[in-house]
Amino acid sequence: MPWTNQPGNGSGNPPPGGGGRGPWGRGPVGGGQPPDFEEMLRRSQERLKRILPGNFGGPGFGSGGLAIIALAIVAVWLMSGIYVVSASEQGVVLRFGAFAARTAPGINYHLPWPIETVDIVDVTHPRQITIGDRPTESHDADQSEDITQEGLMLTGDENIVNVNFVVYWVIKDAANYLFNVDRPDAAIKAVAESSMREVVGKSPIEPILTQDREPIQIEVRDLMQKTLDTYGAGVTVTDVKMQKVDPPDEVLDAYRDVQAARADQERMRNEAEAYANKIIPEARGKAARIVQEGQAYKQRVIAEASGEAKRFLSVYEEYRKAPEVTRKRMYLETMSGILGSSNKVLIDDSAKGVVPYLPLPQLKTNDSRSVTVTEQPMSASQPTPAGTTP
Amino acid sequence: MNRNGLFLGGIVAAIVIIVALFSLYTVNPREQVLLLQFGAPQRLVTEPGLHVKVPFLQQAQFIPKMLLNLDAPAEEVIAQDKKRMVVDAFARWKIVDPLRFYQSLYDETTATMRLTPILSSDVRRVLGSQTFAAMLSGKRAELMVQIRDEINRDADGYGIKIVDVRIRRADLPPQNSQAIYRRMQQERTREANEFRAEGEEISQRVKARAEREVTVLTAEATRESEILRGQGDAEKTKVLGAAYGQDADFFAFYRSLEAYQDAFPGDNTTMVLSPTGEFFRYFGAPGKK
CA nearest A369 in B: which residue? Predict the structure, then answer.
C-alpha cells in the first residue's frame, strides 16, 4: 500500500522544496487564507536590507552581482518553506522543535529550516499490518519461515492454530503519533501480535475455527486500543480482520478429513432417506393393490357364487318337473361331450388278457394327459383298439 | 571605511554565528535536555523549542522523552509443571527521571543492555512460578502486569518506568509442537471415524425403520385382503349352500357332471374303458336289458 510507509519526514529535515507531494492546487483551501508569497518575499527582503549594513547592495558598492547571488540564495531558502498537505493528510509544524501549529490540507508555508520544520502524516487513509501468512513478497526462505511461524499460536486447550489477520488503523492525533512512541508502527505490530495471542490463548480451538471469529476480532481490537491508549500512541485501531484461520499445515489433512466425514455422514443419511422415501410409497402402493385384490376376489367370488346358485336353481326348477328324464339326459349329454372329444381305448371284459400288452407309455407319450378309467373288472375277450392315431 | 568596515563586519558576523551555534539549541517534543556544566548536571529542559546555554561551558545532553521499546530475545522458560515454552516478550518504558537515568544508565543503548537481562530474568521468574495452563487462560494479563511490577522494582533507581510488558509469544518448543500436532491429528481422526460411524448408524436406522414400515404396511394390507376374501368365500358358501341345499341328491348329480366336464376338458385325454355302465347300456345290445 502506498500510504503504509509514510510516517512523516523524520525529525529535523525540511521537506524537499515542498514540491512533489500530491497534486498542486488541489485540495480545499477552506480554513485559512493562502499565504501571499510575493508579499512575504518582499517583506523578508526588506528585513534583510535592514539587517545588513546600509550600503550593502547599494549602487555605491561595485559588486552588484554578489548581491544578486546572495538574494537568490535567500529566495531559495525562503521558498523551501512551501509545502503541500493533501486532503487526507495533516501537517505538524515545529518551531525550533516546539509544536507550533497543525496545518490543514492545501498549500502551506512554514518558515524555512532551521526555524521551522513540518511533519506531514496521513490521517485519513487506514493503514494496515498483516500478521501471519502473507502473499509471497519476499524470496527469502528464512523470512517466509518466520512469517508462517508468526501466525502459529497456542489455543486455550493446548492446540495450535494458524491465524492470519490484518489490523487496520488510522492516526487519531498526528502530534501524539509522531512524538509519544518510539517507532510507533513496530509498536502497533507487536501489540497486535500479543493481543491476538492473548485472546486466542484463552479460547479452545473449535470456536476459533468456527463461530467465534467475530467476537475475537472485536476483543483483539479493544485490547489493542486500550494498550495503545496507555502508550498515548495517538492512533485508532479501526478494525481487526482474521483472514485465514486454519489448523497448522501438519494437521490440515486430518481436519479436512473430518469435514469429509461430516459430508459422508450427511450423504449416508440422505441416501438412507432416499431409500426410505422410495420403498415406503412403493409399499403403500403395493398394500393398496393387495387390498384391492382382496376386494376383487370377494366381489368376484360372490358374483360367481350367486350366478352359480341362480344357474343351479334354474336347472333345478326344470328338473323338478321331470326328474328322471332330465337326469338321464343330462348324464348322457355330459358323457357324450366328454367321450366325444377324447381318445378312447375300449376293452371288453372278454379281452382282458390283452391289457398287459397295451403300450401304455406310448399312449401316454402321444398325449400330454391320459386318464385310465376302469369301471369294473374287465372281461371282454376282443380287444377293440380305436382312435390311436395321433 | 568601506573595505575595513566590511572585513570587521564579516568577522563580527562570524563570531556571532559561532556563538549562536554553541549557545542555542532546539528541543523537539520527542526529547528533553539535561544541561551539563563540565559534566555536572545543571538543569533539566523539558519544554520543546529554542533554548540558550552558556557556550563551551555547558553541554546539552539529549535524553529521549518518548515511550521506548525493549525487546527480550525469545527464550525457553520452564513452567512450574516442568513444561517448556518459548517466550518472546517486550516492554515499553520511558525515562521519568532524566538526571538519575543519565547518572545510572547514561543513554538508551546502555539502558537497553542493562534492562534486557532484567526483563528476561523477570519473565523467567514470574512465568516459572506458574503452570503452563495458567498462560493459556485469562491469567495472562495478570502475569504481564506482575512482570511489569517486578521489573519496576528491579530497575528502581534507574530513573525509568516500565509502562507495559507484553508477552508477544508463548509457544511450545518445536519438538513439543510435533507432539501436539500428533495429538490433534489423532483427535481429528477419532472425530472423523465417529462421524462416519454415526452416518452408518443413521443409515441403518432409517433404512430399518422404512423396511419395518414396508413390512407392516404389506401385512396390514394382506390382513385386510384376507378378511375380504373370507367374506367373499363366506358369502359364496352361504349363497351356494342355500341353493344346493334345496336338493342334495340332485346337487350331487349336477355337480358331479360339472366336475367330469371340468376334469376331462379336451381331446387330448386318452381313456381306456370297458363298454359297460350306464353310458354303454345300449352299446352292445340295443334291446331292453
Answer: B269
